[in-house]
Amino acid sequence: NQLSSLLDILRAQLFPCNGTQIWWKSWREGGFKKQYEAKMIDEIGEEKFKKIVKLLLSEHSRLIGRYPEMPLAGNFIDNRGSMINFCPAGRGCDNDQRKKFVEIDAEKRIRKDSFDVLKMLFSKYNIGVDIALGGNTSIDIFPYGWDKTYVLSHLGDYETISFVGDRCDDGGNDKALYDALKLNDFAFKT
């Protein structure tokens, strides 16, 4: 919605979900049409996918016991097709619960604790996924190579690439693309 007026007059391609989807729109045809989609379960297999979910459920139980002050709002595991989003407080947080979680996380580093545990478990079970901190409340889990640099495989010679990211620090889900664009001498504003 934020770009809808601009996109209505331009031919545009959008690359959501780290570029594992491509949506194309032309002012002549109207509406967006999906051109491409890659799915995590197809990449790693159903057995490993289910193992991830089991590990996340176990990890969530551990976090609830270790951090009883953490708000809980529901929808803790979100299958987004190309990735799993794990949100310890829950995607259903209202603004007050979200603010409380962010404050507690800043002090106690709940997500960093969980990040380290999950990274170790995924390696131990040879699941073939990577993880990154997403937004202020969650952890993204995706197949190796499916970080935000995945989108670059779809791009040819473009004069301008617009990238909006707020998690460009170590462990952040925007860091890999931020670094890749800087290394490739794209026009860059921070």
Structure overview:
The chain is α+β, with helices and mostly antiparallel strands. Helix content is 37%, strand content 17%. The chain has helices at 4-9, 40-44, 46-66, 95-108, 110-124, 175-183, and strands at 12-14, 21-25, 32-37, 77-79, 84-86, 129-134, 138-143. A hairpin with a 4-residue loop joins strand 4 (77-79) and strand 5 (84-86). Helix 3 runs antiparallel to helix 5 (110-124). The longest helix is centred in the first third of the chain and has 21 residues, at 46-66. The two termini are 24 Å apart. The relative contact order is 0.13. The model has no long low-confidence stretch (mean pLDDT 84).
Outline the secondary-structure elements.
Layout: H1 4-9, E1 12-14, E2 21-25, E3 32-37, H2 40-44, H3 46-66, E4 77-79, E5 84-86, H4 95-108, H5 110-124, E6 129-134, E7 138-143, H6 175-183
Helix pairs in contact: 3-5
Features of this protein?
single chain; 190 residues; alpha+beta; 6 helices; 37% helix
Q: TL;DR of this structure?
A:
The model has no long low-confidence stretch (mean pLDDT 84).
Mean pLDDT: 84
Strand order of the largest sheet: 4-5-7-6
- Tell how many strands the DSSP assignment holds: 7
The percentage of residues in β strands lies in 15-25%
Low-confidence stretches: none
What's the end-to-end separation, in Å? Answer: 24 Å
Q: What order do the SSEs take from the amino end to the carboxyl end, as H and E?
A: HEEEHHEEHHEEH
- Radius of gyration based on Cα positions: 18 Å
List the total number of helices.
Answer: 6
Structural class: alpha+beta
Q: What does the overall shape look like?
A: globular
Give the % helix: 25-40%
Please outline the major beta sheet.
4 strands, antiparallel
